[in-house]
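Blinded run. Sample ID left blank on purpose so nobody reads anything into the name before looking at the predicted structure. Input follows.
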Amino acid sequence: MASNFSHSSKYADSDLQITLPGGRVYHLHAGVFRRASRFFAQFLIEDLGAVLSTKAKRNGINLRYRIDLVGTETGNARFVPRTINNMGYCTPFSSLLDIENGKVPNESLKHYDNLFRSFYNEELNIESKNLATALHDCMGMVNLAENYECVDAVRESVDVALLRKGQVLFKSISQNPVQWANFACRIRSPSIFKDSLIHLVGKWKLLDEEEHANLDLPIMEICQRKYDEFQLEKEVLELRILGHYSAKIQKPESDNPGRMSYANDIYSWMGLCLFRQWFAQNICQGSNLQANDGGYSFYLLLSKGGQAYLDRVQREGFHLYFPMTQKGKTVFENHLNVYKAEVQAFVAPLMANRTQLEFQDHNRPNHLVCLDVSEDDYPWNATADGLESNHV
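Blinded prediction complete.
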């Protein structure tokens, strides 16, 4: 874990001193703070800075501004500018013990430390093992950044700090996409928002009313639009599967096919008939795109093919009406498996993983994660001022 930034921020050319409770003193640059924050810029106007004497400059003194944080113990934290004389000293004299009476700093001071780190693109001091604590640290800093009008300056630092958590982060996003989507918008993180949106749309009907209500309105609208588009894509796909004929049983008109030509493909036609019956039954039962999981379980079976569905046990009911010899059953099964293999190609895109979450077949999420997300789907690209969130 990184050390207190105030211990390592003594730049030789610093012209700004920021003092926090507990004896934390930061020697920084007014120019950096002006560019990063409109709030701090008001205290760092050129005319408000000390006009240092020749003697002070000769002695290597550059300090022209000082800002103290007060009121943290009463919940009324605010920055107060102090006057610096021409020798680079604060007037009237104010020691570190005057700041909050020397009391031990509270947790919020860590967020201030991280805020200043982000201005200098320094590594943030956040929890390295526990993601919940790391998120708490980042949220605390972002809250300050919103208060001090410097969110743009901290976004990248927060994004990088969280992405360093790797699979721990992406697993958390898959489990709590609502919270992560809201937070991603606050820091305008494409990586985190993209994963969140994919999981949200994939489990759209699995979310309860409270989770839907907790989504910021712009995100809700994007999710609904993407969900509707995704449903249409799946509907088109199902229609394609229902209308599919194997090339093997199709006959060119130039061959002038007769009755025997079609009779030779009887097992293929019977397999097609059984498949479509099974497919139609699943649609009627609502196992397809209308299911709460968006059809995930149904499409997963189709993607596996083989004995994943319509296996030998299930086919026994069919053979009660259409009995065959054992050899005939084997030939029929082979033709049916050929058709299943062709269907696998149709649903393969639905089994794609477009998130950054790594998983195997045994621990897949219980929803589709193949949604295509573009930059046009980011809320901050649709609003000039970005998105304010009160839900995280």
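Unblinding after everyone has recorded impressions. The CA atoms of residues 185 and 319 lie 57 Å apart.
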